[in-house]
Model the fold of this input.
Amino acid sequence: MSRIDERRLLPATAVLAALVAASQLFLVQAACAASVSTTPPQQPAAVPSSLPAAQQAPVVKASETPEDTGDRLLAENKFQAAIDAYKKAPHDSPAVWNKMGIAYQQMFSTDEAMRCYMTSLKLNPESASVLNNLGTVYVSLQDYRGAERYYRKALKLDPKSAPILKNLGTDLLSRRKFRQGGEFYAAAMAVDPHIFDGGASLQIADPSSASSRGAMNYYMAKTCVHAGLNERAIEYLRMALNNGFTTPRKIFADSEFASLHKLPAFEQLLVSQRN
Done:
């Protein structure tokens, strides 16, 4: 999934941002820019073309600007309607172009999302949020090295951004750079202990393989163990096993999971996987 940067969100665009699984990526949206995260494929909500025009037309409040209307519709997952509203907003606003890019990306319109993000970046080259969102576009194109370049540029501008740290960790793990990816996951959790909690957010599909997702879950389990989140660590290990990344024997032999050995849930996990 992609994650919205809550520290810089406009009130009308306060979309909850959280990670549901370790393989997701975050989009980030801010007052002057927005950002994205990756998640297992989900079909985003869109305005059905078969509905009568009266049902499709968004309700516009008298006091709303076109950008306000777009923000509200984006928060409601009405992506095409949000795009139509943003097109009526001033074209010199980097925030508007960024949020329009998010809306296009939620509709899997990668080329249009890229165009909007690049336009936003030209208007505001110092936006970590937009750089993050461009990184997620490259992930959707399976260009993970390209994504890493943008994530690292974003972190130079905002080194304490948990969503961007998490996205870079996911990118590295998908390329089997396990130790480095795990370090960025740990850094993301240190900034925001809830970065991997479930919740509603703007996200994009992560095209990585089951093996890569297994690696992400395995190293997320290690991050959770170090943070004292044992129950969550066991759940990530369960997902790593289901992804075929590891085996009960290897998990038991890994010294970083030694603190789990006497927990009934951990013992049950290993026994169930052996049967």
About this structure: The chain is about 55% helix and 5% strand. The two ends are 33 Å apart (CA to CA). Residues 210-226 form the longest helix (17 residues).
